[in-house]
Amino acid sequence: MSTKPVVLLLGATGFTGRLIAKYLSTHPEGSAFTLALGARSKGRLDALASDLGLGSAVQLHVVDVTRAEQIEAAVKGAAVVINTVGPFWTWGTPVVHACVKHGVHYVDLTGETEWIKRIITTYHYSATKTGAIIVPSCGFDSVPADITTHVSSKTLRDITGEPVDIDTSVSAYVVRGGFSGGTVSTLVTAIEEIPANERRVVRTEFSLSPAVGTPSPRSPLIYRLFLPDTRKTLIGAYFFMQPPNRAVVHRSWGLLEAEAAGDARAPRYGPVFKYDEFLVTGGAVRSVLLTLAMALGLGAFLITPIRWLLKKVLPKSGEGPSETVQRNGFMKVTNLTTAVASASPAAAPLQVKTVMTGQGDPGYSLTAVIIAEAALSLVLSATDARPAVGRRGGVLTPATAMGDVLVERLVKSGRVTFESKVVAARPVEGKKTV
């Protein structure tokens, strides 16, 4: 009997699911795991397996996520589940329940902070008892935000030889890509189905964190990020992914702080840590116009008749960007992390710049790579190679569950690069940079 871990992909016949299935079916380490595909339609599963040229080694499971017995039958034989069936508020909880019950690891693509809050409250403790590692938001939201902060913090530790308290960590995004019907469905669900009180709760900072940290400064109308090594300033606008990304980074902060409370040498970000991010636009006027456009777009979705019309004309579930858009897409995330200033008034604060780049549509073709490698990080890597905080199970984050293992796997994929270095800081006025 084979002892290879089973990687179960749910929603395999959906738009993003097909991309993930294709990536995993041709993975260089394919001989190290058994691929299992799950979807509601047996006919569509068979067609997908035929299109990808999959042999008898692949497992096919008919799984309707409204049928608990079908979820149980598929999940209990897996080592890790990749869940792409959203909106997760509507369909995700039974899958997490089965994974926690059977001690099976889990990753998904959600950006639904309200749902993540629910599963933390309901399943985090139970998952630590069964050993299930549950990691939401393992795609474009929120791996770049979470993992670049992790890499910058590690670079600070490596250069100083000890944990370094961080003041601010700011990520500037440059992206090109499209969106799918699943994205539209998630937005509609958030407006129409999630109770207002739960939406209000997650709008507060540190809503997913086990502790409350330092409040973030108010978001400016125009963002500016000075890069000391190039002497250039990135200018941009509010990024609509900031709230869910920040919530995930804050959870990483809180989990690391809790771990460091019992071990002073454990990695942490420090008590005054603050995270922010923005979308690079290239100019102040563009930033203002983009912010206004996003506000008007969201406002339109809040008006029932307009929302009804938009649902008719925007992409439907299962639809997404063309192959050309996916192929020509790209992502560049520049993170600047600044340590708490030295006690010396002449010393400029120590800063690290981490750049994560990826070729392909960030939300789809790149996300397929990221979530697949996240899943494989949990079943093909040595347990002691992953962060200590993530080895005991629970509802975690990419940085706390996988950390450097995920970084290394993404680089090895050939689709993602990382560069992290200490950069000379802007000098204190009248002082020299050190």
UniProtKB/TrEMBL annotation:
InterPro entries: NAD(P)-bd_dom_sf (IPR036291), Saccharopine_DH-like_oxidrdct (IPR051276), Sacchrp_dh_NADP-bd (IPR005097)
Stored SUPFAM superfamilies: NAD(P)-binding Rossmann-fold domains
GO cellular component: lipid droplet; mitochondrion; plasma membrane
Pfam families associated with the record: Sacchrp_dh_NADP (PF03435)
Regions that span the bilayer: 288-310
Residue span(s) of domain Saccharopine dehydrogenase NADP binding: 7-130
Keywords (A to Z) from UniProt: Membrane, Transmembrane, Transmembrane helix
GO biological process, any: glycolipid biosynthetic process
Gene3D superfamilies tied to this protein: NAD(P)-binding Rossmann-like Domain
Keyword Membrane: yes
Family: Belongs to the saccharopine dehydrogenase family.
Protein name per Swiss-Prot or TrEMBL: Saccharopine dehydrogenase-domain-containing protein
